[in-house]
Amino acid sequence: MVSVQAIVASLELRNPRESRPIEITQLLFQSASKSLRKLAAGLQALGHRIGHNVVGDLLREMGYSLQANRKTREGSHHPDRDAQFGYINQQVTAALAAGEPAISVDTKKKELVGDFKNAGREYRPKGQPEPVRVHDFLIPELGRAAPYGVYDIGDNAGWVSLGIDHDTASFAVNAIRRWWQTMGQQRYPEARRLTITADGGGSNGARVRLWKLELQRLADELGLAITVCHLPPGTSKWNKIEHRLFSFITQNWRGKPLVSHQVIVQLIAATTTKAGLTVRCELDTNSYPAGIKVADAELASVNLQRHDFHGEWNYTIAPRRDP
Length: 323
Fold this sequence. Notes:
Elements: H1 4-14, H2 22-28, H3 36-45, H4 52-61, H5 81-97, E1 102-107, E2 111-112, E3 144-152, E4 157-163, H6 169-187, E5 193-198, H7 209-222, E6 225-230, H8 240-252, H9 261-269, E7 278-284, H10 296-300, E8 304-306, E9 314-317
Parallel strand pairs: 1-5, 4-7, 5-6
Antiparallel strand pairs: 1-3, 2-3, 3-4, 6-9, 8-9
Helix pairs in contact: 3-4, 6-7
């Protein structure tokens, strides 16, 4: 076998203007996956005497290494993305400074209920792993669980409504209602305004009519002005609830099959952190039909005031006065 330096030299001689091995680069970027042995075979077909170990050394000299995909692309980059984050921070900071509640909301990934594999590992007696189903087929009588979370930014406390029906705007707003009734009202007895940060899509999306209508009903019921600031497109992972609540729930139930709704509720409620996070969870057995249409007249009845800066993302819904 020839040395790496000899291979490099021979390839450079064949194309003096290119200081890197052209053939390896071309082979790497072909559609099929290329192992060291396949690359060596490809080079051998081009007339080079080379083994896979030398190919590995050559790739390292070229600055290549084995790498997995990285999730970094989140869709279009809006020109006012950073400005919207700054605006959200201003609204939340002002609310907390005034002693008013500010929450981050979102739906966690739906989970199959039953003896299915759950990612992660837990300590068990050696050679006795938890037995689970081979295939992830829905169990009709158990279905899926939809955890909708509310994270109190100022109190480092979370609330999760575990739904068993559709993830709709009605379900989302009812989760906020239950948070207020069980936690928020006691924490903020003098509140006059509620600030919500939410993703731009999903059941609490900026364009969802039912979301705005349900928030109007909630504002009327609680007597609170509700300010909503949506994250700009393609930035859902920056929602505070993702890394301050949902990530710890996932860690807490790692390796544990979610065999029943009660088990899920208990695992979520047992989530804590060294920073003092506390979580409460409740099963929501209500039915939330999908596909509800909101007529133009109903939407017009919403007492919605759009903010000067990106009113499609930032708006306040005030309680309607009695006739």
